[in-house]
Amino acid sequence: MEMAMAPRPNFDGPGVTYTLPAPVTLAQSAEGARVELDALEFDARVFARAVPARDATAFLMAEATNSSREPLLASSSAQIFLDGTLVGQADFDAVPAGGEFTQAFGPIEDLRLTHTVLDRSEGDRGLISRSNAQTQDVAMNVENLGQLAWDVELREAVPYSEQDDLVIEWNAQPRADLTNVDNRRGLAQWNFTISTGATQKIAIEQIVKWPDGMVLR
Hints:
- Helices cover about 0% and strands about 55% of the residues.
- The strands form three sheets. Strands 10-13-8-7-4-3-9-12-11 form a nine-stranded mixed beta sheet, with no helix packed on it.
- With about 220 residues, it is mainly beta.
- A hairpin with a 6-residue loop joins β3 (about 45-50) and β4.
């Protein structure tokens, strides 16, 4: 069986143009014709991203590098397929040759997330030099109800101070693997593998202190 000819990319400037293997016929009064461009395959890292403070489930993600010589074009309505099945449409940013990109493929219903504020208190603390303080305990759980183990990246926002008089401390069990993820201050990430039927628990204690006489807003 002969392989169907695909459009040929031309790298003759800052962009890329495609030469079609045959003329395209447009029907009268038609808005246009859909043309399938080149099909590219990349090795991808597949993982689950979990944000318990926002979502009830984790989401399937794929991270890859555009190892081809041509850029991936941007689209406002890219069709997303998973194992040959259309799972939705989404915006897709342009990816230059050699660039990295991450794509979401929808929720993983087997990975259930919970985010609970266990304790929150506020009052005066200190003996000689009194200062006001606020504490908060947060518990996050990831439960795997399915039959597959998953590599998970869990993200949580943690407080940080932009004033000298405001002191913020936070401790997590287990400790976060990354802080200030993607150069975003206050974003922490935990990386772990969760097996079938298992539950991963993460606890965070946040302590905020400010001088007596000042008001926290």
